[in-house]
Amino acid sequence: MAEAAEAAESPGKPFLYVVVCAAGVADGVSKLITAAQERDWEVGVLATPVAMGGFFDTAAVEAQTGRPIRSAWRRPEDPRPFPAPDAVVVAPATFNTVNKWAAGLADTLALATLCEACGLGVPVAVLPCVGDALASHPAYRESLDRLRGMGVRFGDPYAGEAGEDGGRPEFAWERALDLLEQR
């Protein structure tokens, strides 16, 4: 992959790319990272440029993974910070990211990585975070169909018990890892 490292960092451990988009629940991405590490994944985080603008604690995520968060392309002379992914999780995935990815647009490092992952056959699991009004848009439904046709696995992060306040349940980060295990 264009941004993958040449040498594996931890022999025997698979490497997971986590792509974080700009959604309110992104501040919980550390739960996904913890769950992945508990399942013996090495983790590298890529974020959309907007997500880097305060949607999650970037310093805490870098400390948790021991790696820099990637949001922009590196210069050719810079070292590759991550090995090639064994799998990719997109969580939370926004309306904008899903539609641009399905259209093959690669105007950010995160989107380019997603487009390449599909082209290379790397397993990809997605937990969308899209409001009902946007989810009913025909372009979104078509994008889901196109990505599913490419082998992308989608899960409902809100299925299950209502939240403590009787509203939407908590975002179920681990479902993305469960989707990857359903081979």
From TrEMBL:
- Entries under Pfam families matching the protein: Flavoprotein
Q: Which residues form the Flavoprotein domain?
A: 18-116
Record's signal peptide:
none
| Organism of provenance | Streptomyces pactum
What taxonomic lineage is listed for the species of origin?
Bacteria, Bacillati, Actinomycetota, Actinomycetes, Kitasatosporales
Q: Which GO terms describe its molecular function?
A: catalytic activity
Protein name per UniProt: Flavoprotein
Task: Please indicate which superkingdom the organism of origin belongs to.
Answer: Bacteria
